[in-house]
Amino acid sequence: MTVIIDIFLGTLVIYLIIGVLFSIYFYAKGSVRIDEGVKGTPWHFKLIIFPGVVLFWSVLVRKLMKKS
User: Fold this and answer.
1) Which of 65, 62, 26 is nearest to 46 (CA)?
2) 6, 58, 59 from 30: Cα distances, Å
3) For the CA atoms of the chain, what is the radius of gyration?
4) Does 68 have pLDDT greater than 70?
5) Mean pLDDT, residues 30-38
6) Which residues contact 33 (CB under 8 A, 6 or more apart)?
7) 3-state secondary structure of 1
8) Residue 16: which of 51, 67, 66, 59 has the closest Cα?
9) What is the C-alpha separation between 37 and 20, in angstroms, rounded?
10) Cβ(64)–Cβ(25) under 8 Å?
């Protein structure tokens, strides 16, 4: 049972790390490609959407790929 929990937690940590790394790219270039209205927003806005970007990075990657 502990092996299953370890695998689950390890996978969750990897997913979240990828989300944090993706958020760096997303704030630099990706957010403007999805929505032009994001251009010039203050850091407060980026702080508010950070948890969502980290959790839903896989969905945002797909959206960015469609925009290319």
Assistant:
1) 26
2) 33, 13, 12
3) 14
4) no
5) 85
6) 64, 67
7) coil
8) 51
9) 22
10) no
What one-letter code names the amino acid at 16? L
Tell me which residue has tokens 């990828």. Answer: 18
In whole angstroms, give the CA distance from residue 1 to residue 37.
Answer: 48
pLDDT digits (tens, 9 = 90+) for 8-28: 999 999 999 999 999 999 988
For Cα atoms 5, 62, 34, give the angle at the middle one, nearest 5 degrees.
125
Helix (H, G, I), strand (E, B) or coil at 3: helix
Using a 10 angstrom Cβ sphere, with 0-12 exposed, 13-18 middle and 19 or more buried, the burial of residue 58 is exposed
pLDDT, tens digit (0-9, with 9 covering 90-100), for 37-62: 888 888 898 899 999 999 999 999 99
